[in-house]
Design a protein that fits this description.
The chain is of the alpha/beta class and about 240 residues long. The chain contains 8 helices and 7 strands; from the N terminus they run E-H-E-H-E-H-E-H-E-H-H-E-H-H-E. A 7-stranded parallel sheet has the order 3-2-1-4-5-6-7, sandwiched between helices. Helix 1 packs parallel to helix 2. The longest helix has 29 residues. It is globular. The structure holds NADP nicotinamide-adenine-dinucleotide phosphate (NAP).
Length: about 240
């Protein structure tokens, strides 16, 4: 039987690249999305026709605890078991901390961090009794070192790193591995608010002198999810061209 993966925020960007990489590996794919239904549906059709995998789209706002629980339940029921959970969905915001409202802070933490708690908790309900499962979280290099004007984002991603380390210790005796990939600058829609000059500066600041592609992150995620990584847990794998070392 094929293994199954649920990827949150898989309609676009890094999540969509992860879906494609897992499909190449023969996984059944549950594609979570929020706003971009057309993108999610066309990705699903492509994965089915190109790779012969089974795929399903599930709309859920991972910023809401109840949606996370429903999302996991629906994916579990559809495929029988979620072998791999990729907590990828995320939002960013560039703002001075003094201009950031309490609601904006709460939403950032809700979507980027609490979602990882809620989805992981719901998935572990099925994983722990089976004594198997893998969780890969998407952090950010700004969660490692902090970014000016991205205090809420950086804090949410630092939280993802802390959660990854603590959870990995807690569930390791149940044979469940938990790791994170921490991307550098990756050219997706998340970067579209940055002007050309800033993007060129970010490229210059990257020791490899190139920006990341969603596939670069997807390959690292698939590695951590695979049996090749059977002895790796609690780790934060930085995929950033050397930006943060
Ligand atoms: P993106 O292109 O903006 O895509 C974001 C994805 O997340 C979309 O599929 C979106 O779904 C989904 N999403 C957003 N809010 C959601 C919610 N409340 N519920 C469910 N889905 C939601 O971003 P990306 O660059 O691929 O980022 C993916 C992850 O990588 C994020 O966690 C981000 O923080 C992290 N990351 C990105 C970079 C970078 O440079 N791009 C660097 C470091 C870390 P819809 O479009 O359907 O709403």
């Amino acid at each position: 039987m094929n293994k199954s993966v649920l990827i949150t925020g898989a309609s676009r960007g890094i999540g969509a690249a992860c879906a494609e990489e897992f499909a190449k590996g023969g996984y059944n794919i549950a594609i979570n999305y929020l706003n971009h239904e057309d993108a999610a549906l066309s990705l699903k059709e492509r994965l089915i026709s190109q790779y012969g995998t089974d795929a399903v789209c599930i709309r859920a706002d991972v910023g809401e605890a109840r949606d996370c629980e429903r999302l996991i339940k629906e994916a579990h029921e559809r495929f029988g078991f979620i072998d791999v959970l990729v907590n990828n969905a995320g939002v960013s915001m560039q703002k001075l901390v003094t201009d950031t409202s309490a609601d904006e802070w709460d939403r950032m933490i809700g979507v980027n961090l609490s979602s990882v708690f809620h989805c992981s908790k719901a998935a572990l309900k099925y994983m722990i009794p089976e004594h198997k499962g893998v969780i890969v979280n998407i952090a950010s290099m700004w969660g490692e070192v902090g970014a000016s004007m991205e205090v809420a984002y950086s804090a949410s991603k630092s939280g993802v790193i802390g959660l990854t380390k603590a959870l990995s210790k807690e569930v390791a005796p149940s044979n469940i591995r938990v790791n994170a990939v921490s991307p550098g600058v990756v050219m997706t829609d998340m970067m579209k608010d940055f002007d050309e000059e800033t993007v060129a500066w970010l490229k210059d600041e990257t020791p490899l002198l190139t920006l990341g592609a969603p596939e670069d992150i997807a390959k690292a995620v698939c590695f951590l999810a695979s049996d090749e990584a059977r002895f790796i847990t609690g780790q934060i794998l930085s995929v950033n061209g050397g930006f943060v070392i």
